[in-house]
Amino acid sequence: MNLELFPEEIRPYIIPKPAGKLFYRCLGCSAEFSIEKLLYVCPDCNQVLLIHDKNEAALSQHTGATWQKIFDYRKMLKIPALKGIYRYHEFIGSCIPLDSILYLGEGHTPIVEASPHLKEKTGLNFFYKNDGQNPSASFKDRGMASALSSIKYLIDQNLVSDVIAICASTGDTSAAAALYVSYLKPLIKSAVLLPHKKVTSQQLAQPLGSGANVFEIPGVFDDCMKIVEHLSSLYPVVLLNSKNAWRILGQESYSYEIAQDFDWDMANKVVVVPIGNAGNISAIMNGFLKFHKAGIIDQLPKIIGVQSEHADPVFQYYLEPDENKRCFKPVNTRPSVAQAAMIGNPVSMPRVIEITRQYNKTSCHQNVFFIQVKEQAIMDWQLTANQNGHITCTQGGECLAGLVKAAAQKIVTPAETAILDATAHAIKFSEFQNLYFKNQIPDAYDIKPNSGFINLPDLITPDNPDIVPSQEKRLDRKEFQCFVQDISGKIAKKLNL
Fold first, then answer.
1. How far apart are CA 458 and CA 236, in angstroms?
2. Whole-angstrom Cα Rg for the chain
3. Tens digits of per-residue pLDDT, 211-221?
């Protein structure tokens, strides 16, 4: 793209230059640390970190309208580093040079309006943001693009070498981590820990296919996470879970994209997010806060976090209306079809608490809500969405179930427009659909199949067993004509043609 064709007033800012002075700040004791260290929790108090920019004031050099114009024109560039989440370079990784940015096609996932029948069925106006159309088929790629770009930056600056990246996962994190790490081989290697028999076969296949060292551990995700935390405290490994503050920074891009896709108008908008390790909802709120502070958006959208009753520690925390009396308690999870969100002790809980407080304060009213839904509703609404033109995962079903319940509680009205997070592609969780259709979902999930959703293949065979074609036995012309006529007649009858 010829920059001479861009408006003169924004031309110098279209291609960003490294300018920020990023640092880690502890959410517990407010201690600050250099980003040139591999750091995931505060060395002083063991609390999680967020990344801030000492040059944050420089963002005010432009008006909100100018930033909008910069980002809108930046869409035209063909520079790979700016085609993904780093379109918003100044708000995500402002210190990282473009040649250190890793881009595999992540970000700018489509926002698809609910079908007319689905809108009519729910009585609500909403869209799905299909983050399953990221490279590894989940939203985790946003955070991995950021985390691995930060590591490449440190490698390029000769600050680290012989890097081993490690993560615990319910499936999506391991797939994203293994994919992004594999692109940087041999500079970096990856290892992932998965709870044994707690991830789908599709999700297990992904890190194996990307060449990661995969370790299955007895127990649940929370148990894997404790092992990863222990390893990262003893050895110089890169932790790629959402304890990594760079992951949060990258996932903020979700909110920036929503703002841009709705032409920066966040009035009467509702963003619905499933909660697992609590990193994504933290990032989304933080992203909207940054854009609001910079004047890019003039209103903060309503945020609704959704959890299954089988894994609901954040919902339970906010049941207490008095902020001063709230006390976080991890929960023991039960089996959930929203498998990626089946986490009882989210590592980003301190981030949720702090950022929710800021979000409501900036909004001047309660603008963040938490909803608990049943497993039955998750599965039924996922199938409803997908049988009406969408490709949402079980976490996306969780969001739709949450939106419907929020409407019943008058938290959302038909006058508002909701954007639902389909965190992964439907095919990743197709095993649950298969079990549902075959009425084989284990009792522990508390789900009973509704016959109206069940859809199984119908085997059509000819009456004459001698005219069944196969690769080994090809039919002659007359036999094949008989086969075609027989099968066509049976199908026409079933379809009432």
1. 55
2. 24
3. 999 999 999 88
